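Course assignment 3, question 2. Fill in each field.
Student: A.L.
Task: Predict the tertiary structure for the chain below.
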Amino acid sequence: MWEGVDRLLDRLDPQLIGDHGLGPLAARRYRERGEELPERIFREERAARAGALVAPVLLARVRNAYDGRLLLLKGPELTRRYPGGARTVSDLDVVAEDAEAAQAALLAAGFQEVADTPPLDYARHHHLHPLVWPGLALPIEVHRRPMWPAGLPEPSLREVFDAATPAELGVDGLLVPHRHHHALLVAAHAWGEVPMRKARELVDVLALVDDDERGELSELARRWRFERPWRKTLAAADWLLRGGSQPFFLHTWGRHLRNLREPTVLEMHLQEWLAPFSLAPPRTALRLSAAALLRDIRPQGHENWSDKGRRAVRAALHPLAAKSSHEAGTKVRRRGAE
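Answer field:
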C-alpha cells in the first residue's frame, strides 16, 4: 500500500499533495529522491512534527480533567501506523461516555471554546463546540458519538468502548478503538460533506486494514449494517493505491476523485443527490437523496429567499467552478451585504 502512496505522490504537484493531507509523506518521498522540499510540503511536515509533540500533552490534560471513559479516534493513533509518523494531526477527536460532563470538566480545567467555528447546532451535532488550550493551536472535539453517515443506524457505543484497548501514548486511562472498529469508524468519517474528499482518508482506512483480516472486517460491516459504504470505500482505496479496478461511482458522483481535484459546483450537487445510493438500500437512499434536494432548494439558516436566489443564479452561471471558489464568492457577497 505504501508503494502505491509513493506512486500517487509522484504524480501530484505540491499544491494537490497539501490539499489531500499528504504533505508529511511527500516530505519523506522528496528526501528519498534527494530533492529540496517545496515550501508547502515543508510547512506541512513542520506542522505534523509540532502536532505530534503537542498531542500527548493535551490528551494528558484532557484525561486529568475528566475521569470517565475516553476514547481517542484517528489522530495520533493513526499517525503510529504511518511510516515515520508522517501524518498531520489537525485536531484531536475524543468520544466521552458523558460528553456534556467531559466538556464542562475541560472548560473548568482551563480549556476555552474555539472562536469563529462553523455555524453548527452543537446541541444536536455529533460533537460539542471545539475547545483549545490557551497558547496551543490544536483543537479538541469532544464527541457524543463517532461521526456516522446520516440515515444509517449507528453502531453500539457500548460495544466500541467495551472492545477498546489502552492508547500507546503514555496517557493513563486513554483508550483507542479495537483496530477493526477503528477501520470502520475511519471509513464512516470519510463519508462526510464531500465523500472521500481527501486521498489521506483512503490512506487512513488501508493503514488499519490487514489483507488477511478483510473477511472479518466485512462481517463486522455487515453486522453494523455498514456493508455497502465499507465495500465502496475499500474499492476506492484499492483503486487509488493498489491498482484495483475503478469503481462505478467514479463515473457518476465521484468523478472528481479520478484526478484528485476539488469537485465543481455541479459535481457537488450530483454528489449530494447520488452518493446516498452508494451508502444505503434503495428506499433509504431515495429518502436521503430527496432530503438533499430539498436542502439545495431551500435557503440555509443564515440566508433569506433573496440570498438563496442570488446563490442559485451564481451556481447556474458557473456550474464548472470549483466548490471552494463558489463558496468563497458567496461569503464575500454575504459580508458585503452586512
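Instructor remarks: Residues 264 and 323 are 5 Å apart (CA to CA). The chain has a mean pLDDT of 87.
Grade: pending
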